[in-house]
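Q: Now give one record:
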Amino acid sequence: MQRNTVPNKSLLAATIASLFAGAAFAQSAPPAGDNTATVVVTGTRVSNRTVLDTSAPVDVISADSIKNTGVPEISQALSVALPSLNFPRPGLADGTDTIRPATLRGLAPDQTLVLVNSKRRHTSSLVNLNGTIGRGSAAVDMNTIPTAMVKSIEVLRDGASAQYGSDAIAGVVNIRLRTDRTGGEATVSYGARLTEYEFAVAPPPAGANWSAGPTSRKRTDGQTGTVSLWKGLGFGDTGYVTIAAEYKDQAHTERSGYDMRQQYPLVNGAFDPREATINRFNAWYGEPEMKQSTVFVNAGNNLGDGVKLYGWTSYQKREARSGGFFRRALQDNNTIQIYPNGFLPIIAPDVDDFSAAGGVTWTLGSWDMDTSLSYGKNKMDYTIENTLNRSIGPSSKTSFDAGGYSYDQLTFNLSGVRQFDVGLASDLNVAVGAEARREGYKLEAGEPDSYRNGGVLLPSGAPTASGSQVFPGFRPSDASNNHRTALSVFADFEANLTQNFLGSFAVRGEHYSDFGNNWSGKLAGRYNFTKDFALRGSVQNGFRAPSMQQQFFTSTSTNFINGVPFDITTFKPSDPAAVAMGAKPLEAEKSTNYSFGAVMKLGRGSLTVDGYKIKIRNRIVLSENLTAANVRNFLTSRGFVGIGGGRFFINGVDTTTDGVDVVFNHPFSLGQAGKLDLTVAGNYTKTDVTRVPATAQLAALSPAPILFDRVNVLTFEEGTPKTKFSASGTWSMGPWGATLRATRYGKILTPASPATLDQWASAKTLVDLEGRYAFSKQLSLAVGADNLFDQYPDAYTTAQNTTGNAPFSNYSPFGRSGRYVYARMSYAF
């Protein structure tokens, strides 16, 4: 790969001159319950291609499937519908419990591309930094799209960088919006967590005046009310304006253990009497408190002569509050004059998400043309509440503006598609196109008290850490405002080479202003042995460009080591201190994908089996926190005085992922007992780390620091379940309906340091049940329970949860919230 070179201008000019059209807008609807006739637009640019006629596996999740879940959000609906997609729900992870990433085929959240109406969706501004699945990645927040606006979701379970560009290593999620001219629906739902969970409890200290705590806890919390509305309006004779709005109010959940630690300083050498009365369920570990308002408008109009306008816009305001680790009254980072009983710091991010897109399709000779301009921005600002800056002393504020960051993306597309008769069994479908994209990432500092050191010492005379407890604010030295551009051209060819053999080839060239060029290609085929049985497969190379967040995020906190202040920093890879430790400009991740599968049509049903191998080279990861004494000495010897080390993003992890997906769908007629739509699916995925990063500068130290240790290696290999199985049945008879779903998640490992604290969590099966009754064509009621039998991941031992604050692993693929019971009323008009 050449760095910072200009793409061939004559090739670019020639391609743009003939570009003409990208997204196909096929709107055919299949008969109810018949998935063999479902038309898809993802993974192919041939119109009227059905879901079982493609050369790669595509799943279609209907609006009803999303609606008929207790927690009606897109990421959650996908996690129960797709065997290879997981949606962990971490807590005590700063902003990651407000913007939670999903993973496809065991890969990173940023290795799945998300589209809206076949157009690239902007990512969130958050980069996940803590010990969660997806550490170091910045992904699209699919929950910024209200479920009421969704017509269907198509998931391409195959790499597609040659077709769609960066990020499509694991696959593509394409959210298709409603295009209704009439009708509408109002929905009100309310639910709560009714649950009981168990945990391990440490014994009290010797001589304690408080007794051993309980080992289980009943909770009714997480009360969630959602009001949503969508309405279709006519626009001229043929146009549409579809509007959706949603408001969600969610209370937090508490899944902490019992904190048996001493809470107060000793009084005359004895335990404080308050130790016997204080509430030791002192953490919020669980779902965040959240208020979320969303509006989404999708519009289009046929102007005649083959010219159609389309566009959409959305805005979401999300206000969240989640807890950090509890600070006990006796801890050095507490000021007892402010919090005599200790305090639970609250991280309260406000997220603003905006998008707008507009485009036109038309015909130019034999070409179907499409051009569009889209913009998206995600902004996240942090307020830290119920906390203090210990270094300021008793005069410290208790709420701080800690700053924040934003990411924005402006994208222009021009593309075209047409058919040529070249003597094959079908016309050759040719699509060519180009895309120009401008991305920006901005980081803003917090108020001075959120990061400064006020100089107030501990009673021992030692200095204390700077900034607001739990989340020090971003400093002016962290602030930045950066942009980059990306240009791409593509060509896509698809045809039946013989009556039974479908072949396709795609190629895409990309130029990024910050790291250089990339070319991706994909070759796919499908052979129909009969009308009911086919084999399909593909081979391709893909890539993921380093994100703006990975290149420019930085934060700094001051720690005192033996009374000496040191700045511990998440460095930009270009920072001189990071360069001294061996950091280099980030390069694109590269992948090679192989897939092979079979498709069987079983009347109105189907069975698909698809195996895959994904080799990824030079994955970008966040290094370990490099703060050992020899690292500090190394930096000091090179003029970086006062820098105690830190971490930075680096290329250098190679992985191989092998797996297989099996999906069976079939609608059954039960005669007078109604009809049943059955889906059974399974996934096996195994990832092996074959290389980890190293730098010559750090390797020369003794002992040599490890840039990517066993915890992170095992997180890649064992942190997501190798197996996932699901079975779902939807029954209907007249006004009655029901959905019963069971999902089995395989075991996972939460690795730790030392290795003796590794925790295996056993496989768990979650059952969801919903019943529905339609009082009329307009009014319907549903009641149900997600996780009906109240399953939890295996609890930590007390050695793995020394604070009592977090008794369950953040790696759990289904979270740790317990049973959710709900009711939903809908009125169609």
User: Anything to note?
Assistant: The longest helix spans residues 9-17. The chain is about 5% helix and 45% strand. The first strand starts at residue 58 and ends at 62.
